[in-house]
Every structure is written in structure tokens, then in C-alpha cells.
Amino acid sequence: MIQLDNFDLWWRVQGNTVEEPNVRRGGTSGVQSLELPPGSQRMLYIKRQTGHIYRTLRYPLGRPTIQREIQAYREYRRLGICVPKLVYGGVGNSHGQWRGLLVTEGLEGFVSLEDWYRIEAQNYWGEEIHQQMLYQLAKTLSCLHASRWQHGCLYPKHIFVRVNQKPKGGVDIALLDLEKSRRRWRTSWASAEDMEQFRRHRGGMLDQDWALLQRQYKHSLALRSAI
Ligand SMILES: Nc1ncnc2c1ncn2[C@@H]1O[C@H](COP(=O)(O)OP(=O)(O)O)[C@@H](O)[C@H]1O
Ligand SMILES: [Mg+2]
Questions:
Q1: Is the beta carbon of 50 within 6 A of some atom in ligand 1?
Q2: 158-164 — which CB contacts under 8 Å span 24+ positions?
Q3: In this structure, are 87 and 149 located in the same domain?
């Protein structure tokens, strides 16, 4: 993997637009992807933000949102939740405006949950793998919430699924876009808000899948809380 630890170099690197810079939180945020080194089929994702801050009681004057996301990346990893590998993360200041950068390795072999339903992956992989996917997703979310972490933007486009070839086998779940992730005082707050958000935005997910996911999630969360 290419090693650059210079903010300005990463800021200037140009790739293909994944998300046009859009105005939010009083600043702009955009994402590009880039094959690096060229021809390697290894993708990098570069999130660039300008003047993009969040405020909390702890940071009443505002703090670059990228800093919250970098911190969340570390915490999720510590919890054993799969997230993209962080290549570079940093903040800078230009003409009195915050700039934030987050460079991650592309999740290899994964598809988003949104695409999983769009391409009808269930028909391709079969019922057993599909059930495993729901089970692993329930486990991942219960792990997150039992630690009082709330994702804050739990949409199918931010949940990624990989079916492993044998001999490893099984299904992996990864989460991304952690810029709204934060620790809550109670598991029940993190759980209720994330799951309600997921319910509303679950899109192509079938009702029976949603019901099964919820059952497994509640069971898994109860087991973790009992420990
Ligand atoms: N490391 C990654 N691997 C695979 N896809 C990624 C990665 N990082 C970003 N993406 C893709 O780019 C999209 C935008 O990134 P995201 O972090 O959600 O930015 P934003 O905060 O602008 O929504 C994601 O929904 C996902 O499709
Ligand atoms: Mg996003």
C-alpha cells in the first residue's frame, strides 16, 4: 500500500467522484475513489470535508467531524467490528476554515446491504447463506449497542456483506460512514435510535427478514447484557 502521511498531498490527489461535495453542517463533504497503485484493483476512498464541524457539550465551539469519525474507526476496531482499514486521517486549517481528510482502503469482496437486496444475492447464494448474513448482522449490531455505541446513520448503504470462500466460509459484516457515531449513556438509547432509523430506511429488505433480524438481535443483545 502506498504510504503518504502528508495532508496536502492527500488533499490534492484526484479520483472518481462517489459522492459530489454536498453542503451539510455548515461545510462541504465529498467522497472520491481511486485505484492505487493504478492497475492493482485496490481501491481507496477519500473523504474530504471543508468547514464541516459538529458541536456537543464537550465541544461547544465545534470540532471537525472527521475527528469524530477517525475516533469511531479506532473504537469499532477495538470492539472487533469490521470497518475499512484506515490509510490516512487528519485535519488541517486553511484560511480559518477546518479541512478534514479520511482515506480508507476499499472493502474487498463486500457488497452493500442495499446491493445485496437489489441484485437478489439470496437467490445466488442460497437460503442458508442469506440466514447467516442476517444472523451476523444481528450479532454485529448487538455488539455495537451493548457497548453503548450508536452508529447514527444506519442505512443499508452503510452496511457491507462479504460471503467467504471455503475453507474460511461464513459471512462477514462491515460498517462504514461513522461520522455520526457516538457513545451514549445507555444501550437502550443507542439501540432504539439506530434500530428505528434502520427500520425506516431498510428499503428492499423483506418484512420477514426484518422480523427475523429483530428477533436475533434482541436475543443476542439480551445475552450480552446478561454477561
Ligand atoms: N472503504 C470503503 N470501501 C467501500 N466503499 C466505500 C468505502 N468508503 C466509502 N465507500 C462508499 O462511498 C460512499 C460514501 O462514503 P460515506 O463514508 O458514506 O460518505 P458520506 O459521509 O459522504 O455519506 C459509501 O456509501 C460507500 O458506498
Ligand atoms: Mg454516507
A1: no
A2: 158/112, 159/112, 159/113, 160/107, 160/110, 160/111, 160/112, 160/113, 161/110, 161/111, 161/112, 161/113, 161/116, 161/121, 161/133, 161/137, 162/107, 162/109, 162/110, 162/111, 163/125, 163/129, 163/133
A3: no
CB of 87 shorter than 6 A to ligand 1: no
Same domain, 118 and 216: yes
Number of domains composing the chain: 2
| Ligand with minimal distance to 45 CA | 1
Closest C-alpha to ligand 1, atom 2: 106
How far does residue 160's CA lie from ligand 1's centre (Å)? Answer: 10
* Residue that finishes a domain, picked among 57, 74, 105: 105
Q: Do 119 and 191 reside in the same domain of the chain?
A: yes
Q: How confident is the model at residue 226 (pLDDT cuts 50, 70, 90)?
A: confident
pLDDT at 3: 57
Of the pLDDT bands very low, low, confident and very high (cuts 50, 70, 90), residue 227 is low
Task: Indicate whether residue 181 lines ligand 1 (CB < 6 A).
Answer: no
- pLDDT tens column, 186-197: 999 999 999 999
At 4, is the pLDDT very low, low, confident or very high (cuts 50, 70, 90)? low
pLDDT tens for each residue of 63-101: 999 999 999 999 999 999 999 999 999 999 888 889 999
Q: Domain for residue 130, yes or no? A: yes
